[in-house]
Amino acid sequence: MTEDDVDAAGGRTAGTGPGLRVHPVRTALLDLLAEVGTVTATEAAARLGHSSGLCSFHLRQLARHGYVEEAPHRGGRVRPWRLTRDGPGAAGAEEEQFGELARGLEDESWQRWLARRDEAPAAWRRDEAFSAVAYLTPEEMSRVADVIRRALVPYRDREQRPLARPGDARPVALITRLFPLLPHPQDGAGQD
After folding, report:
1. Could you read off the pLDDT of 30-83 as tens digits, one per residue?
2. Does the chain have fewer CB atoms within 10 Å around its N or its C terminus?
3. Which residue numbers in the chain have pLDDT < 50?
4. What whole-number distance in Å separates Cα of residue 152 and Cα of residue 168?
């Protein structure tokens, strides 16, 4: 059975690029990886309610198109996966669509947090969301992004090393978007 057979059998929706179609299992896998960091096909199957074979197939397809990669592991049959660090390997439309998917998952996770934050333990019921506008040059914007990335380095290994995590540590979404604000078109400008 090929990917096209699976997609045709399930009546999948529009494509996200050559050879990779939007698929609810793939979307769920990407969401799960964004939440927990690394996951095996068996762990994903248990969390998502699918077979490990189905999850394994879709993880391999996501890897083939640069969305996920094998996470470091100590041999054996265990095959953990993680989101790729730099997004999909292919540039262009596929990368842009992955960015849209990632932003959609981020937004969905944020909305789920807002709707269900009262279910979290009391110590976790607040968040650290903020936004700011700063006047920067392109070089300064890059430097700010680098500072943020460096600030996260001490916590990065906790993804692959659960024993390095403090007992009360939980996965926390860290979302940073640095982009220039474009001017609003004036009323009536550019209209015929």
Report:
1. 888 888 888 999 999 999 999 999 999 999 989 888 889 988 877 777 889 998
2. C
3. 1-19, 88-92, 189-192
4. 18
Cα atoms in the Cβ-side hemisphere of radius 13 Å centred on 98: 24
Let me know: does 94 contact 65? Beta carbons within 8 Å: yes
What is the structure's pLDDT at 162? 81
Q: Which two tokens stand for residue 41?
A: 């096909």
Identify the DSSP state of 109. H
What Rg do the C-alpha atoms of the chain give, in angstroms?
A: 20
Domain 3-123 classified CATH 3.30.200.210?
A: no
Provide the pLDDT for residue 73: 76
Cβ partners under 8 Å of residue 173, min gap 6: 34, 106, 109, 110, 113
Q: At what angle do helices 24-36 and 93-116 cross, to 10 degrees?
A: 70
Q: Residue holding tokens 């699918």? A: 50
User: Residue 44 carries which side chain, given as an amino acid letter?
Assistant: A
